From TrEMBL:
Keywords per UniProt: Membrane, Transmembrane, Transmembrane helix
UniProt keyword annotation of Isomerase present: no
Keyword flag Membrane: yes
Taxonomic source organism: Simiduia aestuariiviva
Protein name, UniProt field: Putative membrane protein
Length: 221
């Protein structure tokens, strides 16, 4: 008998890990950055969410959903990139950043192609894929600039870490409201709404952690 990933036990494990990760993510976002609670909650968000993203590919063999694949790959990019920014060493980091760069680049190309394809279909959603393509393009551009510079100010790494964690949380929320629970939202509402909230949170972190006149450092922070 071929194993069915949609059997009740497997599906409950998948959903349970996702619920655990999202709950921990909320605690991490709301706690003092750098505090023991923030770090513990961040780990409880990051590692289960990676498992959820990986298990998504197994589910997709039985029921292929392009948006689920995009969200899973985005999560598998954002969380390792965020963790690496939190434990930065220049020697090991540049290779890892170069490898991770392939994911937002491919996602940018794929969602841009989807936007072009949808634009040729009357009534098909176009804004959502365009916003996703822009988001992944910005992430790829940041990675390219980092590879060229080789280092960031201390708060630059903090920003990078928080930005990617916020986006990982946002992509998980998108998957829940569009695929998991399915609130009946359109693709535009599923993508634009959560990303708008994410941009506001990221803008707050950018304001809270300025990088002007700070010495560039490649040391672990």
């Amino acid at each position: 008998m071929i194993w069915d990933p949609f059997d009740p036990v497997s599906y409950l494990v998948h959903v349970g890990l996702g619920f655990l990760a999202l709950s921990a993510g909320l605690i991490a976002l709301g706690s003092q950055k750098g505090s023991p609670l923030h770090k513990r909650a961040g780990r409880w968000f990051a590692y289960p969410m990676v498992l959820v993203a990986l298990s998504t590919f197994i589910f997709m063999f039985h029921r292929f959903l392009p948006l689920a694949i995009v969200m899973a790959l985005a999560t598998l990019y954002c969380i390792p990139s965020a963790l690496r920014a939190a434990r930065y060493t220049e020697y090991t980091g540049r290779r890892w950043d170069g490898l991770l760069l392939t994911l937002p680049t491919l996602l940018c190309i794929f969602t841009a192609l989807q936007a072009i394809r949808f634009s040729q279909i009357d009534g098909a959603p176009v804004l959502g894929p365009c916003v996703l393509a822009l988001t992944f393009g910005c992430l790829a551009a940041q990675d390219i600039l980092l590879l060229k510079r080789g280092a960031l100010p201390h708060n630059g790494w903090v920003r990078r870490h928080l930005t990617r964690m916020v986006l990982a949380f946002t992509f998980a929320v998108m998957a829940v409201v569009r695929i998991g629970i399915n609130f009946g939202l359109t693709l535009e509402q599923t993508v634009v709404g959560p990303l708008l909230v994410a941009v506001l949170i990221i803008a707050y972190f950018y304001r809270r952690y300025p990088v002007e006149d700070m010495q560039v450092s490649s040391a672990t922070h």
